[in-house]
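Researcher: We're teaching a course module on how sequence relates to structure. For the next exercise, students receive a sequence and then see the predicted structure as tokens, so they can try to spot secondary structure elements on their own. Here is the exercise chain.
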Amino acid sequence: MLKKRTANNRDHHLIIEMWERSVKATHHFLSEEDVAFYKKIIPESLASVDLSLWVDEECVVGFSGIDEDELVMLFLDPDFIGKGYGSKIITHLINNDGIKRIDVNTQNEQAKAFYLHHGFTIESEDERDGFGKPYPITHLIKK
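Model: And here is the predicted structure for the students to work with:
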């Protein structure tokens, strides 16, 4: 059974490793240099969100981070992608944590389609990410 657990500082190493595996499996559009750039700033981001681990039995299947009504990060271990965990997690976050906004890399078509399938709509798009890098961002909202 999938359970949500509050993450703590001791979990950060696991989260960063999972983030990197997930990004390499799903964000093929990122250069290696940019993966390294984002990996360096991830620790700062972890401290600014309500960070949770998602555990099934004894396996950590993913993590999420929310800031008020925005899902700032949701990453699954690549071994668990496509097995229904993402849908369970996003449904829980919508129903129990009031998630209404998500930013997604436009080039990550699978993730964008996933959120649209779960009732989010496109609010706006930017040509560059928040760091000025050439990775378009789609801003999604749930009404």
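Model: If you want an answer key for the exercise: The chain has a mean pLDDT of 96. The chain has four helices and seven strands.
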